[in-house]
Protein 1
Amino acid sequence: MSPLAQLLEAALFSAARPLTAEELATLEPDATLADVRAAVDQLREHYDFNQHGVELVELAGGFQVLTRPVHAAAIERAQFSVRTPKLTAAALETLAIIAYRQPVGRAEIEEIRGVSAGGVLRALQERGLIEVVGRSELLGRPLLYGTAASFLELLGLKDLSDLPRADELTIALQPHRPEQQGTDDAAAYVPAES
Amino acid sequence: MSPLAQLLEAALFSAARPLTAEELATLEPDATLADVRAAVDQLREHYDFNQHGVELVELAGGFQVLTRPVHAAAIERAQFSVRTPKLTAAALETLAIIAYRQPVGRAEIEEIRGVSAGGVLRALQERGLIEVVGRSELLGRPLLYGTAASFLELLGLKDLSDLPRADELTIALQPHRPEQQGTDDAAAYVPAES
Amino acid sequence: MSSPDAPIAAAEALTTALGAGAAFVVELDAFAGPLDLLLHLLREEQIEIADIPIARVADQFLHAIQHLGLNQAADYLDMASRLVRLKAQMLLPRRTDDEGWEDPRAELVRRLLEYQQIREVAIWLGRAAEKRSEQLARGYLPPPPALPPPPLVLDLLELLQAVERVIAGIPSPVLHRVVARPLDVESATARIELLLLEREEIGWLEALGPRPSIVDLLSTLLALLELAKRGLLRVSQPAPFAPMVIARESVSTAA
C-alpha cells in the first residue's frame, strides 16, 4: 500500500463516522483530492482482493471502514458488539415524511400520519437523525425539520438521492398542496419533480 | 486470509476492548485455541507484510487492532473526532436566551422557544458556554443557567454589560404568558382593572 | 423498490389477524395510528381505496377501536368521528345526473393514498437500516487528541440574529400590563372582623366595602373562606341567587 493509503486507513480506523475526501485530504498537506481518491480506491481494492473481514464503504458523503455483513451474526452471538437498536414504525414513518418533504413542520407530519408527533420528533432529534433547519413563515412560526448527518449513516446511503424515487414507488407521490406548506419553495423539495 | 482470520479481523475491529484468544474462539464453534492463535498470527503478519496503517497488538492479555503510532500526529492534527465547530440554530437561540435572561431556568427557556431544551442545554454545558449558577426558589428548585467565562472570551467581551441592546432584548425575551409563570408569584400578575 | 407486495406482507407481520375470528389478540402498539388501522381494515376486506364503502368501513373501524382498547385515544376518536360524518354525508340523496357532486370521500382517499405511500417509504427505510446494521463500525475509538479542540465559531451578529429569531418565534406577543398589586387578604379580614364585632350579621356587599376593585373582591372572598374555615363566621345563602349572608359564629360556645 502507498504511504497515503496507509495514513488514510489509520484515519478511517480512528474515526467514529464517515470521513469525506476533503477531510481525508487535510491529513497530508501535499496530497490533492485526486491523490486521496486514488488512495481510497487502492485501500478498497486491497480489502476486497485480500478478502479482509472489513470493507471500505461509501456513505453519507464520505468513506467508512465497516465489517462485512457476513460476520455480523457470529459477532453478535459472541456479544462483542451490538447492533444499533431498530427504529419503531412511528419513527420510520416520521423519518420518511421528513426525508421527502424537508423542510417540513410538525403540523404537516401530524396531518399525514394522523397522530401527534411530539415524542417521536424529540427522539429522532436526540438520536441526531433530524434537526431543526428553520422556521416556517406561517402563523406561530413553527419549527421546520430536515434530516441530519446521521440519517444517511444509519441507512447506509450515499446521499438523499439514494432514496427511492417517486416512480419507483407503487403509489405515486401526491403533489404538494400549497395551503399545507405555505411557502412556494417547498415544492422544490419534492423528489418527484427532480 | 483464511476464513477464520477474516472473522477474527471483523470481531477485533468491532469490539470496544481487547479480546482474549479464549473469547475469539467462541466466534467459531469448530475452532480450537490453536486455530485461533494461528489465525491471529496470520492477521498480524498480513498487516505487517502489506504495510497496513493498522497493526495487531497484544495487550491486557488480549488482542486489539490499533492504528500505528507513526500516523498519530497527522490524525491528531486533522482532529476528526470533532464534528463541527459551529453551533446549531437551536443551540444559538438557547444561548441567546440565557445570555440575555440569566439566571434562567429550563422551563422558562422552553416556554420562550416552545420546544424542549434538555439536549441543547447539555451540549452548551459540555462546550463550556453555559453553567449552572444556582437554583430557583420555585417548586422543585430547578437549576438556573448563566453564561460561562468562555462565552465572553469567544465574543471578545469584557463583561455581560458589553452585550449589545441588553435592556431592550432582556425585556423582549420575557415569556408573554403570565399565567404560566411560577405559581408562587402569580399574585403579582393580577391583571390591571380596565 | 422490491416487489409491490412486500410492504403489505411486512405490514401484516406487524399486526396480527384482526377480524379473522371472534377474539382479537393485538398488541396495543401494533398500529402506528388511525390511518394505519384503517388501511389494515381495507386490506382485510380487499377494498379499493378509491371506492370505500364508508358505512361498512366506519362500523368496522368503531368496532375495531373498541376491541383494541383504542377508543380512549384522541387520534383514533378523531378518525372515528370523521368516518361517522362521512357515513352521514354519503346517505344524503343526490341526483344521478348531478355533475357538480363532489365525492365526500375524496379527502379521505387522498389522505389514505398519501399515508400508504409514506408507509411504503418507511418500510424501505427500515430495510435500509436493517441492512446497514449488518455492518459494524469500529468499536474501539482512540481517546480524543490532547490538543485543544478547534476554536468554536461564534460572533455577536450571529447571537443577535438568534435573539431576533427567538423573539419572532414567540407566539402572539401580547403585552400584559402588569400591576404589582397582590391580594390584600389581611385588610379584608380586619374589615370583616370589625363589621362582625358591631353586628351579628352582615351582607356580602357590605363586606366588600364601597367601590370594590377585582382585587378587593378576591381578597374579601378569600378572607371570608379563611374565617369560615377557622369557625369564626358562617356563610349562607337564603335562596338560590340571593346575596350571601355572613353571620358571626359564637366561638365561646364552641370552646
Note: The first helix of chain C runs from residue 5 to 14.
Protein 2
Amino acid sequence: MTTKVHFYSYFKELTDCAETQVELADGSTIEQLYTELIRRFPKLAAMNHSTLIAVGVEYQGRSYVLQAGDEVSLFPPVQGG
Amino acid sequence: MTTKVHFYSYFKELTDCAETQVELADGSTIEQLYTELIRRFPKLAAMNHSTLIAVGVEYQGRSYVLQAGDEVSLFPPVQGG
Amino acid sequence: MKRELTISTEVIDEAKLVAGRTMSQGMGAAIYFAGVVRAAEGKEIIKAIDYEAFEVMARHQFGKIFDDVEKRWPIESVRLVHRIGVVAVNEASLWVEVIAPHRGEAFAACQFIIEEMKRVVPIWKKPVV
Amino acid sequence: MKRELTISTEVIDEAKLVAGRTMSQGMGAAIYFAGVVRAAEGKEIIKAIDYEAFEVMARHQFGKIFDDVEKRWPIESVRLVHRIGVVAVNEASLWVEVIAPHRGEAFAACQFIIEEMKRVVPIWKKPVV
C-alpha cells in the first residue's frame, strides 16, 4: 500500500520536502508510518511530542489503521489568528 | 437652604414634573429631602427601593448631608445600551 | 489610554468609525460591540426605543469607567458612542471599540465597559410602540 | 445559523464587511474581532507575518467549530475571514463577526471560535523580518 504524506509549516524545512510517498504493509498504523518517516527524515524525531497528524481533513491518533488512498498530513501546532 | 431636584425617565411622569425646589433646614440629609419629596409626590413612595440618587454627577447615599448649591437627581435603575 | 466618547442623536455610522481606526504597531486586537434595537421588548412588539440621558452625569460616569479600564488592563484606546433620542428597530444604540495588545484584555475590557455602563450610566429606555 | 468563511490573500476590508451586515429584527448584538499583526513577535521586530494554511482541512475544521457554535448558542450568523500569505504589521489577519439576540452569547461564541481556531485549524505563521 502506498501512502502519500504531506508536510506543512516548518516541517517542510525539517524534511526539505512538501510531499512524499511511503510504502507500507496493509493494515499499518500511523505509528508505523511515523517510524518510517523518522528513519527517512531524522529531524522529525525531535518534534515527536508536538507533531499533529491528520488523515484527509480529520485529526487521527497514532493507532489509526491506514486505508488505501489515505493522505496523511504532518504538521506542528497550529497558530491561526 | 433651597435645593433643586431633577427627575429623570418615568420619575418625571410619576411626579408630573422634571424639576422642583425644596426648602430644607441647613444640615439636612438626602433622607430628609426624600421624605419631603414623597409627601409632595406620593407616587414616588412605591419606587423607594429602586430609586437612585445623585448629587451633581455622583451617586450618594441617603445619609449624605446636603450643601448649599447641591443639585439632586432622582431616577429609576439605568438601562443604557 | 486614548478615549473618545460620543453621546448624540445621530445615526451611528459603524463602517466610518471602523475605517477611522488608529492603532499603534504594538497592538494586536480590536474588539467591537454594536448593541442594536430589537423588535421585541418582553412580549411587546416595538418600533423603536427612545433613549434619554442625564448627559453631564453620563459623561462623568463613563469617564470613571474608562479610568477603571485604564487601571486594570493595558488598553491603548476606547471609543464609545451612545445614541440618544428615538432609535429605530435594527439600528445601533451603542457602539464600543477597544484596542489592546492581545484579545484577552480586549474582550475583558469591552465586556466590563458594557456591564458597568448598565450599572451606573444614567441613560434610560422607553419603548416606542 | 448563517455562516460565511473566507480564506484569502486579499486585504480584509473591515469597513465594507461591517457595511454589508444583515441582521434580523430579533437580534440585539453584533460582536467583531479583528486580529492585527504586531510589530514585535517575542523580542524580534518583524515587518509582516506570512500565513500558510492547509486550506481544505482548515475549511473543514472551521465548519466543525461553527457546528459546535450552532449547538451551544442561539447565534444567527457568523462571518469569518482569515487572510493568508504575507500580512504586514498593522493589517488584520483575522476578522470575526457574530450576531446574536444578546451580548452574552455573542461574546461567548466569538471567544469560543477564536480559541477553537487556535487549537485545531491548520494555519501557521512565519515572521517576515
Note: The two ends of chain A are 37 Å apart (CA to CA).
Protein 3
Amino acid sequence: MQVKVLFFGSLREIVGRAEESAEIAPGARIEDLFAHFRERHHELAPFRPSLVASRNQEFAPWSEPLAAGDEIAFLPPVSGG
Amino acid sequence: MQVKVLFFGSLREIVGRAEESAEIAPGARIEDLFAHFRERHHELAPFRPSLVASRNQEFAPWSEPLAAGDEIAFLPPVSGG
Amino acid sequence: MKREDEQHLPMSAPAEDLVQIVRQPIDPLALMNHVRGPGDGAVASFDGCVRDNSAGRATLYLEYEGYEPMARLKMLEICARIRERFAIHRVAIVHRLGRLEIGETSVFIAVSAAHRGPAFEACRYAIDTLKRIVPIWKKEFFADGAVWADGEIPPSGNPGAPAGV
Amino acid sequence: MKREDEQHLPMSAPAEDLVQIVRQPIDPLALMNHVRGPGDGAVASFDGCVRDNSAGRATLYLEYEGYEPMARLKMLEICARIRERFAIHRVAIVHRLGRLEIGETSVFIAVSAAHRGPAFEACRYAIDTLKRIVPIWKKEFFADGAVWADGEIPPSGNPGAPAGV
C-alpha cells in the first residue's frame, strides 16, 4: 500500500525532497517506514532519537500501524516562535 | 508659613477645589495640615484611614514635618490602569 | 468566564479566534483589534521578533519553514486549550514563514479578557506551547554558515491526549 | 542583561524609556516600535481598556484624573524598578486621562527583551505596580450615577525605600 511521506528542516535537506511516496507492506508501522528511508539515507539514523512522527497531521507513536493513503511526517525538534 | 495643598478624586469633590493654600504654624506636620482641612470639611474625616499623603510629589508619612513652600497632596486609593 | 452575550454560542466555537500562517509582514494592531470586545478590560500581547544574534553569534537573517496544515491545527489546539484553562475572551495567533530580517515579527499573539491575570497567563501559555508543539522550524543564517536552530521535541506518542505542560 | 552597544550609557539612563500621560488616544504600535531594537527577541505588551461593565453594572464611560507630575515620577520609578529586576531592554508606559469611551485604551505598556520570560514578567510587574502606586483615579459613570472606583492604598510612610511588592 502507498503512503505519503513529508520531510522538514534538516531531514528535508538530507533526503533532498520535501515529499515522497512510499510503497510499504500492509501491517507496517511508522517505525518501519522510517527504517525504509534510513536504508536509502544513512545520514537519517542519528536524527532518530530526536524525531517525533505524525500521522495525518497529528502526533503519533512510532508503533502506530499505517493505512493506505496516510500522510506521515518525521518532525525534527520544533523551533517556531 | 504657607504650603500648597492638592486634592484629587473624591476629596476634590468634597473640598470643591483641586488646589488650596494653607497658612500653618512652623513645626506642623502633614497630619496637622489634614486636621486643618477636616475642621472646615467634616466630610473628609471618614476618608482619613484610606488616604496616603505626599510631600513634594513623593509619598510621605503623616508625621512628616512641613516646610514653607511644600506641595502636599492627600491621595485617595489609586485606581489607574 | 464567558460574557453574557456569548452564552448561546456552542462551546466549541472559537469562530472569533484568529489563527494564520502568513508569508508577509504581520500587522500587530489588526490582531489586537481583532481580539478586543466591549467586555474586555485587558489585551495581553506577545511579539516574537528576529534578534541580531544567537548566543552572541551575529545573525544575518532567518528562514522559517512549517508543516502548514498541521501547524494550523496545533495553533487551533492552543486556542482551545487556552479557552479551557483561562477566563479569556478571544485569541489571535499568527506565525510568519519564509525569510525574515532582523527586527521583523515572526509570531504575534494577542489575548483579550475581562481581567489582566488571565490575559497575561493565557498569552504566556500560548507562546510557550507554540514553541513546543507547533511544527515550524527556524534556520539561522550567519556570516560563516547556517544552522537549524536547536528546537524542542514535542510531547507525542499519546495522540488524543493533550500534550503535557 | 544589557546589550553590547548600551554598555557605555550610565546605569541611570532610561533615556530610551518612554513615559507619558496623555489626553488623546494612545497609539500602541508606536509604543511597541519604540521599545524594540535589533537585540530583542520579544516584546510583551499590555493594553488596559475600558470595559462595558463593572461587576455586572453597565458602564457608560469613564473619567480618569491624575496628579500628573507625581504620576510621571511614579511611572519612571516603575521603569527603574523593572530595569533592576528583569533582563529587559526598553520600556514604554503611557496612561490616558480624561473621558474614555467603552473599548478605548486607558493604559498601554510595552517591554522589550532578548527573551520572552523577562519581557512578560516585567510587563506584568509594571501594570501591577502602576495600579498600586501611580496617583491616578477613575470615576465610573453608570446610567443611574457615578462612583469613584475602589482603588488600592499605595504603600507609603517610608519615602525613599522602594514601596513593597
Note: The helical segments of chain C are 28-35, 68-85, 116-133.
Protein 4
Amino acid sequence: MAKNNAQPQKAGIAGLFRHQIMIPIAALLLLVLFNLIADPSFFKITLGNNSDGNPVLSGYLITIIDSGSELAILALGMTLVTAASGGQDISVGAGIAIAGSVLLRVLCGTETSPETLHAPVIVAFLVSCLVAMLFGAFNGSLVAFFKIQPMIATLILFTAGRSIAAWINNNQLPNVNERSFSYYGTYIPGIPIPTPFFIALACFLVTWLLLRFTTLGLYVQSVGINEKTSRLNGLNPELIKLLTYILLGLCVAIAALIKVSRLSTINYSVIAKDIEMDAILAVALGGNALGGGKFSMSSSVLGAYVIQFLTTTLYKFQVKADALPAYKAVVVIILVVMSAPAVREKFSILIKKLRSDKTAAQNS
Amino acid sequence: MSIVKRRSGELRAPTKMTDTNLLTMITICVFVAMYIFAVLFLKKGFLKPQTFFNILNANAALIILACGMSLVMITGGIDISVGGVTALVSMSCAVYLDHKGGSLPMAVLMAVGIGLAFGLVQGYLVAYLEIQPFIVTLAGMFFARGATTIVYNKPFNVANEDFVKLKATRILIPYMGTYNKRGKYIPAYIEIGVIVAIALAILLFVLLKWAKPGRNFYAVGGNRQSALMLGVNVKRTIFFSHLICGLMAGIGGFVYFMHVGSGSPQHASGAEMNAIASSIIGGTMLTGGVGNIIGTVFGVLSLALIQNIVSSAGLDDAWWTGITVAGMLCIFLVVQSIIIARRKKANAAAAKQ
Amino acid sequence: MQKDSLLEMRGIYKTFPGVKALQNVDFTLKEGEIHALMGENGAGKSTLIKVLTGVHVKDGGEIFVRGRENAVHINSPKQAQALGISTVYQEISLCPNLSVAENIFLARGKGIGVNWRNMNKRADELLKELGINVRGSQQLASCSIAVQQMVAIARAVDMECQVLILDEPTSSLDESEVAKLFVLMRKLKERGVGIIFVTHFLDQVYEVCDKITVLRDGKLVGEYEIEKLPRLQLVSKMLGKELDDMADIKNDSPTFKKNDEKPVYEGEGLCSSEGISPFDFKIHKGEINGFTGLLGSGRSECVRTIFGADKVTGGSVKIDGEPVKITKPRQAMKYGIAYLPEDRKRDGIVGDLSVKDNIILALQIKTGFFRPISKAKALEYANKYIDLLDIKTASVNTPIKSLSGGNQQKVILARWLLTEPKYLILDEPTRGIDVGTKVDIQKLMLKLASEGMSVTFISSETDEMLRTCSRLLVMRDRKLVGELTGDQLNQNTIMATIAGGDTNGEK
Amino acid sequence: GDTEGGSDNGGKSAKSGTKDNGGADNDGGEDEGGDTGAADDGELITVGIINNDPNESGYRTANDKDLKATFCEENGFKADFYYSLKNDEQITAAQKFIQDEVDYLLLSAADTAGWDTVLQDAQDAGVRVILFDRTIDADESLYEASIVSDMAKEGQTAVDWLKGQGLSDYKIIHLQGVMGSAAQKGRSQALTDTAASDGWEIVEEQTAEWNAEKAQQIVQSVIDSGKDFNVIYAENDDMAKGAVAALDKANISHGVGKDVIVMGFDCNQWALKELLDGNWNYDGQCNPFQSSYIKDIIDKLENDETLSEKTIIMDEKGFDATTITQEDVDNYGI
Ligand SMILES: Nc1ncnc2c1ncn2[C@@H]1O[C@H](COP(=O)(O)OP(=O)(O)OP(=O)(O)O)[C@@H](O)[C@H]1O
Ligand SMILES: Nc1ncnc2c1ncn2[C@@H]1O[C@H](COP(=O)(O)OP(=O)(O)OP(=O)(O)O)[C@@H](O)[C@H]1O
Ligand SMILES: [Mg+2]
Ligand SMILES: [Mg+2]
C-alpha cells in the first residue's frame, strides 16, 4: 500500500505533473528560487583561464555540474539495482576505493610516485572496470542466487572494500604526476566545461540508449515487481539482477576514474566516503520506490544533481562541513514530505475544495 | 456441477519450528561453535570469563540499539538513524554534564527525550505520511550527526563527579575472576550498561512474544495489507515501532556514553550498520515479519566475537581486519541463506500435501 | 433505517483514478438473511465490501448499522470489526508468518497479554469444529491455500458478529468444505446473523441465499428475492443482455478428428522436481484436451512440467516430431507453447506495470533483448486485445493491479494470445470469472482450436471441460490414471475414473 | 579552548592532569612489572599495538611501517596489531589485549578522550602502556611514557614562519583536520591565537577531516563566492593538495612569489617535491618514526631502569620552499 505511488499516467501536461520527475524538478526549482532570493550572484558564471592558460568556466553552477557527476553516474546504476532487486548497494563507496586502487596500481606499478606511467590510462581504466564489475558480480550473485537481502549482501564489501583497496596497493598512496591523467577530473585543455560533466552526460546517454534500444527497462521492472511471473514469461530473474549489479560495478569504475583523477591520488579510507548514502538518496529523491519495481532514470539523475545543488548551496552559506548533514537532512525531509502521496492527496483535496468554493461563488 | 474434492491429507505433525526460531537457533549454534573454536585455537584469553564479559561490556549499547532495530525490521521497516542518535545523545549529555554542570538524572532524561523525539518524528513521517523509512531515517542520521557537531565539535572527557562514579561502577561477578601471568587477581565484572541492556532485551522479548501489541508488529511485517484487513491499526503499529526504536536509541546512547565516558562527533560511527547486521545475523529479516530478540542479542555477540577473533588471530596487516570480518560475515550469510532456501522448499512441499 | 435491517448502505459512491467503481449503490441486509451480491468481474462487488469494512474510504453516501442512531463512518477494518462486521476477503488476507491460531485471534479480544496455550487450545477446538485439518500452532505459510481460506473463514465466524461478509470464499474450496461452510452459514443465519455472500457459482447462490443484489458496472441493478429470480434472468441482469449464449456451445461433447500429422507436442516420461510420477502426454493440432482430477491431484504440475515452469527432472519431448529439450519457460515459448498459470496474483500479473506492458510482456521477451517493441506497436496490440477480450480498464496505462480479478485474468490471457502460440495451456482460466466471461473464454478456445491451435484446459468445473474438450486425462494422486475420449466423456465415467473404479470415491 | 591545552603541551612541563582525573587513583602499579614472566631470556616480549588505519595518510603509512620493522621477532618481540579509526573499537581492542596478557600496550588513540578506565584496567593487570604519536586526555600515572610530536609547537613554528613572510594583510583559509585529534588541536590553536592577536583575517575555517576531497570542495566554494584570500593553512599535506587542485582549476597562482601561500604538514615526499618546485611555500614536519624511542623505553623498563622523562617529544622542523634542497626531500620525506 504505502510503498506504491504508481498512478495511472494521464496523457499530456496532466500526466507530466503526475510523473515522478516532478519531485526532483520541484526540488530543484525550490532551491533555485531560494538562491535567487538569498543571493542571485549564486548564478554568476565567469569565463577565465586556468593555470595552463586554457579557458575555463567557473561559478557555483559549474561546480554543481562538476562535483555532482560521480553521484549522477552512481545514481544510474543504483536505480537499476534498486528496481531489479528491491534493495540498495551500500558498497559503492568501497567499490570506488577498490577501482581507484586498481587504477593506480596499474598506472604506477609499485612505485609511489613514478616518473612515467607504467601503462596507458585506458588500459588501467579497463582493468579497473573489469575488477569493479567482478565485485559487482559478487554482490549480484549473493543477492540473486543466495537471496540475501541487498543491503546485507553488500554490507560484506562495504566492510571489506577499503581494506581490499589498501591491500591492492600494499598500503601505499600512489601519486600520478602525469598531467594528462588529471584531465578526466578537471578540464581538457581548450574546453571550458569540466570533463566529469561530459563523462556523466555520456553515461546518461548510453543508459538512455540502452533503455531505448533494448528491453532492459521492462525486464528490470518486471523482475523487480514479480519474480515468479517474470520467470514464467521466459526471463531469468537471477541473471537480470546480476546484470544490474554488474552495470553498477561499471558505474563505480567510471566514478572512481573521475574521483582519482581529480586529485591524481587516492586515500582508501576517505575516498568517496558516504557516497552510497547520497546515491541512494538520489534514487529516492527521484521518486523511485526503494522497494523496487518501476523507475525513472532521468528522475534519479536529476535527484543526484539536486543533492549536489543543495550541498553547494550550503557550502556557499558557510555551513560548517561537519554540520552540513544536519541542514541537508532538514531540506531532504521537507522535499520528501512535500512529495509524499499522502500529503499531496491532502493538498489536492484542499485545492479541489477551494476551487469548488470558487465556482460556487461564481455561480451565485 | 463441480467435482472439486481433495485427497484427505493426514494431520501433519505440527511444524517443527517457526522461521524465527530456526534462525535464532542457527545463530546461537554458530556463536557457540565460534567460541569453542576461539578457545581451542586462539590465545588463551578466550578461556577467561572476563573476555566474554568484555564483549558484553563493549556491546551493551549495541545490544540495545540492535533490539530497537529488530523491532523496526520486524515491522518491515528500517532505522539507520540509531548511530547518529547515539552520538547526539552522548555529546548532548557530555556537554550538559561537563560544561553546563547538569545533574545525572536530568542527563538520563535528556537522553531518553532525544531518543523519543527522533522516534516520534520519524515514526510520524513513516507511518502517517507514508514516506519510505530508509529515507526518513537516513535524514534522521544526517540530522543527528550534523546536530552533534553543532552541539560541540570536539571529543572531550566528562569529569562530572556523579557521572564518573556511575561510569566506574562495576558489578563484580564472584568466582569468575582469574589470575594473570603476573599473578595478579583480576576480578570479573560487568558494567551497569550490561544490566540495562539485558533488562531491555528481556522487556522487549516479552513484549514481542506475550503481548498483543507485540504480535501486531509481526503481523504488519508479515503482510501489511492483510494485517490492516485483520483489524490491526497498521499505522499506529508502525509509528510505535519507530518510537520504541528511537527510545532504545536514546537509552542505548546513554549506555554507550557510560561506557566511553566522553562526548565526540565520531562516536558510534557505523553503529547503524552494526545494528542491522547483528539483527540479520540474529535471524531478523529485512523484509519483515521474522525476527527474535534473543537472536538479535546473539547476533550482536557473534559479530563482536568475529571482530575479537580477528583481532587476536595475529593478522598483522591492517587490511586483514576488514577482509576477515567481511569473509566471516559472508560465510555466515551464505550458510543462513542456504538453510532458509531448503526450508522454504520443505514448506512449499508441505503446502502441496 | 428499517427495523429489521442490520445494515443499510445508501447512495454509495467510490471512484478510483479513471474508474467509477461504485455509483449511487444502495444495499440492505436484514437480520438472519443470506444475501448474495452478484455481478460480472469488475462490477464493484469487492469494492462495495471494502468500502463497508473501511479498507477504502467512500467518496459519498451513508452507512447505517443497527444499534447506531446516525450514519457511521468506518475508516478502518478495526472499526468495522468493532461494529460487528467480520469479513473474509476475496484475496486471502492473513499473515503467512504467523501461526494459524494467531491469525484467528489477531487484533481481537481484550487485555494485552497473549496466552499461547489458551489460544492454541481454542484455535484447535474451533478448527476441529469446522473440520479443518490443521493445528493452531502451525505456521500459516505451511498450509495449503484451501486451508488458509478455511482459517480465514474460521476467524470471521468465530467473532461475535452481526454481519458476516464472504467475498468469493469458495473458489479454492472443495465440495465437502463448501458443504461444511454452508452448514455453518445456515447455523449463523438462525442466530440472526446477516451474511453477505459473493460468488460466481450460481448453484451455490441458489443453494443457500435468500436474496440477491445485482451490480453492473458499478451501478445497482436491483435487489431480488431468490424465488423470483430464475437463473437465466439473474445472468441476464448481471450481463445486461438477454442470455442464450450457453446454448451456443454445443452440448454434445466435441469430437476431434484425428489426422495423421505428427502431434504438435509429444512428451514421454515427463517428471519434475515437484514430485509428479512420470507421465506421457501428447496433443495434436487443433485439439482441445484437458486434465481432470481432484484438487491437488497434480494437474497443475503436469502442465507446469510441460512448460518447464518447474524443474524438469526427466523425460523426452518432441515438437512436431522433432526431439527438443524444454527445461525452461523460455524454451517452451520458443517452440510456441504458452501457459496461463492458475495463481494469477503470484504467477501471472506484474502488479505495478501497466495493462499495456503486461500484455506485451511475453511477446517482448520472445522477440528478444535487442528488439524492443515500439510504443505505437505496443499500444496497437494492447488496444486490440482490450477490445477483443472486453477488458474493463480505465486506460492502457492503468497498473494491472487495480483491475478487478477477472479482468486481470483476461489481460494475462491476452498476453499469451499475443504470442500467437501453437499450443496454449490454460490452468484454471475461469476461476473467479463471471458466467458471461466464462462462456466467452470457452468460445474463444473453440474458435482458436478451429483455427488450428492446440489447447490444454484445466478447470475444476467438469461441465466446462465436457463442453470443450475432446479428450480428458484423469489424474489421481499425482499420477496419470486414465484417458477418456468420445463416449466416455460424461460425468459418471469421469467420477468413476477419478475414484479409481471404486464407486465410494475417496476413502 | 576549553579542555585541551593541558595535555597537549603537557610534555616537559609534566603537568598533564586537567580536571578529569577524578576516577584515576594511582597505586603505583608500574614498579612491580618486571618481576614475573615476561623478561625471561629467549621468550619474546609481547606487545599489543593499537594504531589508526595506516591508509589514513602518508604519515600513518610511514608510522605503521616503522613500527612493524622494529617490533618483529628478530628484535625479540611478538607484536599484535589492531587498526581502527574508531575510538570505541580501539578501546575494545585494548581490553582484548589486556585479556591476552600482553606485556606492553602501545597506543595511538583515535580520540583524546575516553581512555582512563581502560588504562586503569591495564595498570591493574600489570600491562604497561606507552603512548605514541598522539596524546590522550588521561592522568599521567596511567601510562609509562608517551612519545609524541608537539603539535602545538609544530603549529607555532608554522605560524611564526607565516608571520615572518610579512604580508601586508593576511586572509587565510584554514583547513582543519578531524576535530579533536591532537594534531588538529595543536595546529589550530597556534593559528587561532596568532590570528586573534595580530588581527589576521580568517576567511574560512572548516574541517576537511584530513580529506583532500573535502578540502577541494571547501576551497572551491570560497573561490566561487569571490572572496579574497592569500594564505591556505592546511593541517596536513592531503588537504593542502586538495586545496591546490581547486586553485589550479580557477587559475589562482600559488607558491613562491605567487598570489597564494600554501602551507601543509607531515612532509610527505611528494609534498616536499612540491615545495622544491616552488608550488607550495611551507611544510611542517611531523615525525612518524617513534618506534626506536619506544624500543628504548621498553628496553629500559625490562632492565628495571627508571625513565628519565615521561614525555618524549619528537624532534621536528619546518621547511620553506625557498631554502629546501633535494637532500631534505630525500632525508625528511616520508
Ligand atoms: N485499488 C484500486 N485502484 C483502482 N481501481 C480499482 C481498485 N480496486 C478496484 N478497482 C476497480 O474498480 C472496479 C471494481 O472492482 P471490484 O474489485 O470491486 O470488482 P468485483 O466485482 O469484485 O470483480 P471480481 O468478480 O472480478 O472480483 C474495477 O474496474 C477495478 O478495476
Ligand atoms: N489438498 C490441497 N488443498 C488445497 N490446495 C491444494 C491442495 N493440494 C494442492 N493444492 C494447491 O494446488 C496447487 C497445485 O497443486 P497440484 O498441481 O498438485 O493440483 P491440481 O490438480 O492442479 O489442483 P488445483 O490446480 O485445482 O489446485 C498447489 O500448489 C497447492 O497450492
Ligand atoms: Mg472481487
Ligand atoms: Mg492446479
Note: Chain A is about 65% helix and 0% strand.
